[in-house]
Design goal:
eight-stranded parallel barrel, NADP_OxRdtase_dom, oxidoreductase, alpha/beta, NADP, oxidoreductase activity, K_chnl_volt-dep_bsu_KCNAB-rel, single chain, about 15% strand
Length: about 325
């Protein structure tokens, strides 16, 4: 079964594996398949579920809400996010203004079929709204009981420090950041993780398998498998393209004997690797089929020894993205981008 970790400097525990429904629910798979994967997640011991209003333009939240209907609410940890344009994408249907945040939390709760979310996250940093306005709105939402904790996603170390200071001043807890992180994408290690450790903020990491590349199914010099993320024209392909260079794919293939020696599959090795970082509270995984979860959840509780970690670093030498400046590139330059 899946283990639990504290989220940030709080008494709140979440499952080491979080089920996320980006791309899948409301777009790639139908409601019946979505419900089947959610049931599989629950059966495997996953109680933490992450979504966002922007996923499938509001539909992913609704799908998750229906899939979780009838479950004991107190036994679940439900997360969602706000920032990106949604609905008709009017001038106030985006960003972290008070108006958009207040409208968005009410819509998210309605679609999820719940009175509150455990964690409400700023999906990106909004350079066009005063940070004080954003955090005052977040603080009001917490005091109204519509969210228990506040988190962010893909914020720089400086932005985390500024947000944490404001949250503390307003008497609410900023306890998490949700960045991309994997063996191949390590850009948070230089600045974001040290700042987070100092502030009492945990990472809930997305794409621990580097958009599926660390599964080993993408082979150098060959076309991407039919139906894979790399062939998804609805949005998946653009996120994976940076990892599809032959030198990266060749390095990934060098992980195969390392995984076998550790008694793990390639996906299990990838997820176990991110969970070795003590600042990581949970790894976000998705699934389009229930059986995919049965494999990945087995990475929970795995400890990789120093020799295995060193072998991974040698195998991926030259293929890793680790420049901290990449975090800034994840933030949109305008609210509509």
């Amino acid at each position: 079964m899946v283990g639990y970790r504290y989220l940030g400097n709080s008494g709140f525990k979440i499952s080491e594996i979080t089920y996320g429904n980006w791309i899948t629910h409301g777009s790639q798979i139908d409601d019946d398949a979505a419900s089947a994967t959610v049931r599989a997640a629950l059966d495997a011991g996953i109680t933490t579920f992450d979504t966002a209003d922007v996923y499938a333009n509001l539909q992913a939240e609704a799908v998750l809400g229906r899939a979780l209907s009838g479950q004991r609410r107190e036994g679940l940890e439900i997360f969602t996010k706000v920032y990106f344009p949604t609905g008709p994408k009017g001038p106030n249907d985006t960003g972290l203004s008070r108006k958009h945040i207040m409208d968005s939390i009410n819509g998210s709760l309605r679609r999820l079929g719940t009175d509150y979310v455990d964690l409400y996250q700023a999906h990106r940093f909004d350079a066009q709204t005063p940070l004080e306005e954003t955090f005052q709105a977040f603080a009001d939402i917490v005091r109204q009981g519509k969210a228990l904790y506040i988190g962010v996603s893909e914020w720089t170390a400086e932005q985390l420090r500024d947000g944490h200071a404001l949250a503390k001043e307003l008497g609410v807890q900023l306890i998490s950041n949700q960045p991309q992180y994997s063996m191949l994408w390590r850009v948070i290690e230089g600045e974001v993780v040290p700042a987070s450790q100092e502030l009492g903020i945990s990472q809930i990491v997305w794409s621990p398998m580097a958009q599926g590349v660390l599964s080993g199914k993408y082979l150098p010099g060959r076309a991407a498998p039919t139906g894979s993320r790399a062939t998804d024209e609805q949005g998946g392909a653009k996120f994976i393209e940076a990892f599809l260079r032959d030198e990266v794919l060749q390095a990934v293939q060098r992980l195969r004997p390392i995984a076998e020696a550790a008694g793990l599959t390639m996906p299990q090795l990838a997820i176990a690797w991110v969970l070795q970082n003590p600042n990581v509270a949970s790894a976000l995984v998705g699934a389009s089929r229930p059986e995919q979860l049965a494999e990945t959840v087995q990475a929970s509780g795995v400890r990789l020894d120093a020799d295995t970690l060193a072998a991974i670093d040698r195998a991926l030498d030259g293929a890793v993205f680790d420049d901290p400046r990449h975090t800034s590139t994840m933030a949109p330059q305008s609210r509509l981008s």
